[in-house]
Amino acid sequence: MELFLNDSLGQITLEVEEADNARAVIIIAHGAGAGMHHPFMTSISGLFVARGFHVARFNFPYMENGKKFPGAPKPNIETWGLVIDYLCVTYPDLPIIISGKSYGGRMASHLLADQSPAAVKGIFYLGFPLHAAGKDSKARATHLNAVQVPQLFLQGINDQLANIDLMREVLSSLPAARMLEVEFGDHSFKVPKASGRTSKEVMHQLVEVTTEWIDTVLK
């Protein structure tokens, strides 16, 4: 079902796919350059629904307004809070797991570093964008120690926006966090033919590992 929420910046599109006998709600935010209807977003959402989760996707305000770039992070972080609040009211008996592709996950982490909504039990990142391409740095990870819920990082080893050695250093300071390293994977988890795997197989791996992690978090 597609809904429209209103915040101080205007209308926000929210889409929820429901599963039978869902055990949790997963919220997934899009990356910086593609909205909630990007094929990656719809594909991974469908796989999680098949695993027994309600899945919600939404657009950040800049995407709703037809802009190409995110701009200041504050309104996007605030939108995360609005969406979480709405889904807490809509599904009061279900725990919530939040996530995002690249930029969307980074904005979610900033929200959780500042506040800890009781219903949110964990966060997983679909390619945490640790730095800009060619500008290796850990500066974008300094707030992650303030996140109070379990964290799962799904990272391609060949991700140009997250040097895998630096990601390992980040994880070493986050005792409650885990990381899946996708062999040959880039920032979008695409793998070369020489890897012997298909993008579809990688997507299923992401969902399988994440589902197992969620079940552990919710015990």
UniProtKB/TrEMBL annotation:
The keyword Nucleotide-binding does not apply. The keyword ATP-binding does not apply. Pfam families: Abhydrolase_11. One of its GO terms (molecular function) is hydrolase activity. Gene3D superfamilies: alpha/beta hydrolase. InterPro entries: AB_hydrolase_fold, KANL3/Tex30_Abhydrolase, NSL3/Tex30. Residues 23-214 form the KANL3/Tex30 alpha/beta hydrolase-like domain. Keywords: Hydrolase. This is Alpha/beta family hydrolase.
